[in-house]
Write a structure and sequence with these properties.
mainly alpha; 218 residues; 87% helix; globular
């Protein structure tokens, strides 16, 4: 089990020196599900919880209903992260196996978490920074255009981090399976497409149900 400082150091190394860090961690057969779960869980406490507290402070709403909604949001986000991360890794594992990969599911889960954790932290930090700056700009009576430009800049940085995460994932999987970059891309791309399609289908189903309900009530 890593100490907190060792864990965050490994995240920083993954972001700054992905090739070397991936090769070092891929060699360690003692790293598996437990360390992966901690990698996914730690960022939630580090970033998402402070984000909720910031939202609470800025809103000034201390009613039980609002507090309950924030706690539900935290629980739902935590549950969703673990479900999505395991589903993604499970599908990636079978794709890797079909391509000739021999490494177990637990080690793959850890390597995925080694990439997901720092990118998640970085993205939430960007969101917190944008929220704080927009609040300051509002207090100082900045124009809405300036606020929108700040939000756009934050979104661009967040999307850039996401694509960099895919690059890191390619390096991480390649270091673990040693199947080449193209197969490494296929290993993460297939489950990504499946999960995106599932999300779109779920959204469309909910949207259609709401639309039917509105049509019946009108």
């Amino acid at each position: 089990m890593f100490k907190f400082s060792e864990r965050t150091d490994s995240w920083n190394q993954m972001m700054l020196a992905p090739g070397k860090t991936s090769r070092e961690h891929a060699k360690r057969k003692d790293l598996g599900f437990d360390e992966g779960l901690e990698n996914f869980g730690t960022p939630i406490l580090m970033t998402y919880l402070p984000l909720l507290l910031l939202a609470l402070a800025l809103s000034g709403n201390m009613t039980p209903i609002y507090l309950g909604a924030l706690l539900f949001s935290l629980a739902a986000t935590t549950f969703g992260i673990f479900v999505v991360s395991f589903s993604f890794t499970f599908m990636a594992y079978w794709v890797a196996k079909m391509l000739g990969g021999k490494v177990g599911l637990g080690r793959l889960y850890y390597m995925v978490s080694l990439v997901a954790a720092p990118t998640f932290v970085f993205t939430i930090v960007i969101n917190i920074t944008v929220i704080l700056l927009k609040s300051i700009m509002k207090a100082m009576s900045f124009s809405l255009v300036a606020s929108d430009l700040l939000q756009l800049a934050g979104d661009i940085v967040a999307v850039s981090v996401m694509f960099y995460g895919f690059y890191l994932l390619t390096i991480s999987i390649d270091a673990l399976y040693k199947l080449g970059k193209k197969k490494a891309v296929a290993i993460w791309l297939v489950p990504t497409i499946v999960l995106v399609m599932a999300g779109v289908l779920l959204f469309a189903t909910v949207f259609l149900d709401v639309l039917r309900f509105l049509i019946k009530t009108l």
